[in-house]
Amino acid sequence: MRKLVLTLVTALLVSLLPTTTSANEQTIWEKLQSGNPKGYVLLMRHAYAPGGGDPANFKLGDCTTQRNLSAKGRKDAAEIGSWLKSQQVKVLRVESSRWCRANETAKLLDLGKVRLNKNLDSLFQVADPVNNIQTARIKQRIIKHRQKSGLLVMVGHFVNVAALTGVSLDSGEGVLVKANKQGALKVLGYSPVPK
Questions:
Q1: Is 68 within 8 Å of 47 (Cβ atoms)?
Q2: In which residue ranges of the chain is pLDDT below 70?
Q3: What topology is assigned to 2-191 in CATH?
Q4: Cα 54 to Cα 48: distance, rounded to the nearest angstrom
Q5: Whole-angstrom distance, CA of residue 107 vs CA of residue 112
Q6: Of 19, 43, 45, 168, which residue is least crowded by CB atoms under 10 Å?
Q7: pTM for the whole structure
């Protein structure tokens, strides 16, 4: 009975999102619920913040000088957090870029204490984000997580996730990855995109 209720609640929550996970992706999320899965990382793009890049007067630590989440972005972040909680996956840690829009997204997920990670900071202004030291450090962090239990959630920016995975994410979307023995990142699935 409990499994039926959980299935119905999950189906209802997913139906509220425009893009549902495929059957294969749902199987991956179900795998994370059972046993003691190791090495899984959810790389998320921050929720909707109107505009592109950062204002000319951008200052780290001063949200009044940055692009910030809209009301829709804040609502979306909370919905994504609810969806992730409905998956009943143990979250080991939540890390975020120091940019206000990413940090606010991470906090609104409500999955636990958010730790700032400067290596998740936006690479929008960087000429070669793929070969940037921040990208290398995040990849190394994911590789080190291979033998750890619990989902590592990392909230950052479009360019950063694309540099790591080659995947383009919509605002608020996440890509589930795991490093293999050779240190390559394998894309396993996605979290839904909010309406």
A1: no
A2: 1-24
A3: Rossmann fold (3.40.50)
A4: 14
A5: 8
A6: 168
A7: 0.87
